[in-house]
Structures are given as C-alpha cells and as structure tokens.
Amino acid sequence: MKKIKIYIQLLLVALLTPVLSACDQEDDVVDIFTGKTWYMTYIAVEGQNKMYDFWQGNEDARIQSFKTITGDNYTLTFDGADLGNSTAGGTFSGRATSASISGQWNASGESRKLTLDIKNAGTDTDKYLGKAFIEGLKKAVRYGGDNKNLYIYYEEGQTVKFISFAPQRNSGN
C-alpha cells in the first residue's frame, strides 16, 4: 500500500510539473520594446502576412509608397521601465515619412494590452502608408511578438490589422 501511495505521488508530481511551469507566460515587456529602434516591414490584416492593399489597385501609388520605406521612415523608439505587475511603460517617438509621432506607452506582459497615448502626431504626406502608420498607432489595442519581431494590432471598424516591425540594424554592420 505504501508503494502504491509513493507511485501515485510521483505520478502527480510528473503530471503537474508541466502545468505549473506553463503558468509563467508573461512577456518581458521592457526587453521587447526598449533598447532598439523598430522599423515597419509591412501592415496587414490579422491572419494574413502580406501588405494590405491601401492603394486599391493603383500600382503607381503603391510603388511610390514602397519607395518611402527607407532610412528613418516608419520607425518607432520606446524608452521606459518595468512598472511592476508585468507592466512596462514610458515614452515613445517615431516618424512616418514627413510626420512625427510621440507620446506615452504602457504594455501588459500578461494580457498583451498596449496603450499608446499620442501627444503629438502630424499628417503624413504619404496618404497611403504614412496615413495608415499614424492612424494604426493612434488606434493600437495590443501587441504581439518578442525582441526580434513586434506586431502592433489596431482596429479599423470590424477589421483588425497589425503593423509588423523588426529591429533596425546598425548601419555599421
């Protein structure tokens, strides 16, 4: 009887170990957001990994917009700190092509909720990508990713879109 009890206890420990280790699913928000400049790679509808057609078939406008995805255009930089309870926040700044954007940010590593409190945002001269970039940040509701890929999700009516970012590489590399 004693051996059966020991086997049951060992079985319970073996079964509960993966469950208990899976409970810590919080993101390291400071590591994800800060310490790098993020540059936009594309904007898509949730569930798709291709650029949304903001140009509605206007190929010339699409080509002109794509030419603007260079240098310091479509970038974001987050400064901040751990605020406790798996939350981080601070200030951010960025730019589309001709417009800058800045404000306060707050993100939860547990729920992945993202709040961008915009203090300054201009109107971009690129009426397609530039406008979508600025408007998407204004409507941000959550984030996804890690310190190598950042996705900022926003809602446009019934559609959820996301802006995909990658860390900007040092021009010296």
UniProtKB/TrEMBL annotation:
Residues 1-22 form the signal peptide. Keywords: Signal. It comes from the Bacteria. CDD domains: lipocalin_MxiM-like. This is DUF4847 domain-containing protein. It comes from Bacteroides oleiciplenus YIT 12058.
